[in-house]
């Protein structure tokens, strides 16, 4: 029996199938406000059991890339309301991914031209932000040297996440996902090789996890734990994340903290194909033995590998990113064995209009005849 297309109960929300559209930055909002094209893009892909949006900056300080729609002002909230209405009109479910890039930013993107923030004053090596360069054109620019957040500032950033979570629920989202992966702010605090703090947010595993866990608790107090998920990338190496001595122990302790909180889900981002360290042999079993709630993973799944992971009992839901770009009807294509279209990489980010965004067709009888 095929599990991919079975419904799944995520708390009190029934998902139509077990395929999740993974978060993907597209940089398609020139005013950084969701517009009609944004709503159409997500509406077209509402056949996923669950959509997790692109990362939404929770404040101006949280930005690291131009043209990414945030969720920290009234206009953005109104734009996202149009998106959630469109997805719900098709019977879909959608969570907002809440994002702070931390040190992966540039002074030109920061309020008043200030330095970006992070756990440390160490700049990320060989990492770029996306902003206006010296030539006046948008493109990759080396990140600026950050300033370390003070102990008090950490609470301020947590409050930004709480406000963004409230805006997300008021905009009609079914829940939120905290972006704790891919070398951004929460992972910067968790990483034992980068975090050189001597306050309550540095040193021990518990201290390095504290910022994320305090934010989860504060967000849950505002919107309910059943509406809060988290994404992490154990052993990831994006954006100058370095190996550290107690790496496996850190992520297993995180699993225990997630289990005690009864989150909506934990979403694992497997970066093995893009430079992540190979996980220790026992790590996956240790993590799953410790965290027993709903588990999602993203990592290059196709129909067959996703089905195998579900059948093996390793995962409850499988997340797919790029497959949804050129196949808005990806779930139906998988269900019926239709060919999978390839996306145009040149239009992944930052272009305007429909091209490479909302102009990919669903499978049709005419395409069947042509095939």
TrEMBL record:
Matching Pfam families: Oxidored_FMN
Transmembrane segments: none
Alphabetical list of InterPro entries matching this protein: Aldolase_TIM (IPR013785), OxRdtase_FMN_N (IPR001155), Oye-like (IPR045247)
Residues of the NADH:flavin oxidoreductase/NADH oxidase N-terminal domain: 4-338
Protein name (Swiss-Prot/TrEMBL): Alkene reductase
Organism: Sphingomonas longa
Lineage: Bacteria, Pseudomonadati, Pseudomonadota, Alphaproteobacteria, Sphingomonadales
